[in-house]
Amino acid sequence: MIAVSVVFGPPARLHAKATPTGGSAPDCPASLRCAIVTRGQTLRALAEESGGQDRLIWHFMLRVATSMAIPGMTLALAVYHPLRSGHILLKPSAVLDASALERLREFKVASLWVRYPALDFLARYTNPRLLAQHAELAASLSTGFESATRRAHAPMDYRQYAGAVAALLDAIMEAPQAAIFLHEVTGGAGATGPLMAHSANVCFLSLLLGLKLDTYMLQQRRNVPAHRAKRTESLGLGALLHDVGMLHLAPNVLEHYLNTGDLKDPEVRRHVLLGYEMVRGKIPPTAASVVLHHHQRTDGTGFPQIPRLDGIRRALAGRQIHIFSRIVAVADMFDRLRHPPSARAPGEPPPEPLPAVCALRQLLELARRRVIDPVVFKALCEVAPAYAPGSVVTLNDGRTAVVTAWDAEQPCRPAVRPIIQLNPLQPTESTVGQTLDLRTDITLEIAACDGHPTLESNFYPLTPGAPATDTGPEHEIRTTPRPRSAA
Question: What value, to the nearest 5°, has the Cα angle with vertex 472 and ends 469 and 476?
């Protein structure tokens, strides 16, 4: 059996009618965010590229483990060199043969995205420009970080990073629906190490959260004019550089952190102070504040501790933490939970990320305890669904299915369509069943996603009728730490 995951890819100019903007499948459950909803601006741009005609077909993509790939498959996305920033080994549309597969395995490329049109009842959920901007951002960061690592006082081109963030933001705003599955597609493309890949991912996710939380940011930034309060460029820049201080840690300290993820080590915790000193006065103050405070927690248990008027050093809490830092804190934790640390040999690529639901379940518990901002967590469930459209899942009755739609209030009960037959070499022979709405058929659950067990990670409403993302009674975030119970 081939372990697969599915996502959408660039369109080809073939004679087939495109789904109209805002359209939905006949059997798409009401109130679910259906995967065939597309952005008119993107469709119009593609129609112009194809001579003004709206006769387009969407290529669907399938993620196949390289060890299970078969000669004859056609690549849907480029394959990046795992050690050379931005270097492409194989371009999209390349047909794999035995020698190419052997080389890819020698380079330890973990998985490939191949064309798979059998599930074209779903609309495209990725955007070529968005993928390219994400890869360019990661590659740019890799170059700068590597230079700073080799030379302690090498200047960093913060203006270039700001431009890359602005370009990525433009791409997101052009096709916001296309961003849902980007984490599954990029796999750190363009980055040369876990630190750079993580920084690019956190930047991207923070921008999505900032756009989703525009009204909340207005509430949290009342002392700033409305037109500035909702701007997210500084949020993205701070997110991109949030771990820049790691570059000035001792090599053995950094290696230990990358292998263990241990943030209790005082030497590792210095990275926020080191990073702040690097960027202070060179990037906007709100962006620099993110570098310093992205490990603060709303219950006051984070770091660094700041001297107060009473002479006592304490961490920030609640609204004392800038909204940008609260957003980046959640994005940082989400990406680290999806990519747990592991000791790897030099040049060995990272393992496949854990399903989003595994990270969301852990963050839900932190939101309920007010360790993280619960409003930001709820937004995270909308921009990083537990089971994104296109995910290939295994149901608890053993059937394989593809996610077609989701409800943000019940993230672990999406709509799915069973895959009756899956043939990577003859995709036209594959068939899918009718839509199953897991919100109404509660006997069914998702048991695994991309081969990872998820039954223990699924989360459901605490009380009937409540959203599964409920974090308890709504109230203003505290500005002081919660009193600690006596041990």
Answer: 110
Q: What is the pLDDT of residue 24?
A: 36
Task: State the CB neighbour count (10 A cutoff) for residue 121.
Answer: 19
What lies within 8 Å, CB to CB, of 95 at 6+ separation is 72, 73, 74, 75
Residue 14: phi and psi, rounded to 5, are -115, 170
Question: Which DSSP state fits 113?
Answer: E
Residue 30 has a pLDDT of 44
E strand intervals along 272-390: 306-307, 313-314
Exposure on the CB side of residue 271, measured as CA atoms within 13 A: 24
Say what the pTM is. 0.78
- Name residue 415's beta-bridge partners: 405, 437
CA 431 to chain centre: 30
Query: Which amino acid makes up residue 91?
Result: K
Q: Which domains does the chain have, with CATH numbers?
A: 1-125+393-456 (no CATH), 128-383 (1.10.3210.10)
Q: What sign does the dihedral 197-200-202-205 (CA atoms) show?
A: negative
- Average pLDDT of the residues of the chain: 77
pLDDT in tens, 408-439: 889 999 999 898 765 556 655 557 788 999 99
How far is Cα 411 from Cα 357, in angstroms, rounded to an integer? 8
Strand partners, 74: 95
Taking 3-state DSSP, the helix, strand and coil percentages for the chain, each rounded to the nearest 5, stand at 40, 15, 45
Distance from the first to the final alpha carbon of the chain = 52
Looking at residue 350, the DSSP 8-state letter turns out to be P
Residue 478 DSSP SS3: coil
What gap in Å lies between CA 265 and CA 371, rounded to an integer?
20
User: Quick one: which H or E segment has residue 413?
Assistant: strand 410-421
DSSP 66: G
Gyration radius from the chain CA atoms = 22
Q: What is the rounded distance in angstroms from the CA atom of residue 320 to the CA atom of residue 314? A: 12
Structure confidence by residue, pLDDT tens digits, 336-369: 999 998 766 665 666 778 999 999 999 999 999 9
Q: Judging by DSSP bridges, how do beta strands 446-449 and 392-395 pair with one another?
A: antiparallel
For 465, left (φ over 0), alpha (ψ -120 to 50), or beta? left
How far, rounded to the nearest angstrom, does the alpha carbon of residue 199 sit from its chain's CA centroid? 11
Q: How far apart are CA 322 and CA 2, in angstroms?
A: 46
Neighbours of 52 (CB within 10 A): 8
Q: Where are the beta strands (DSSP E) in 164-300?
A: none
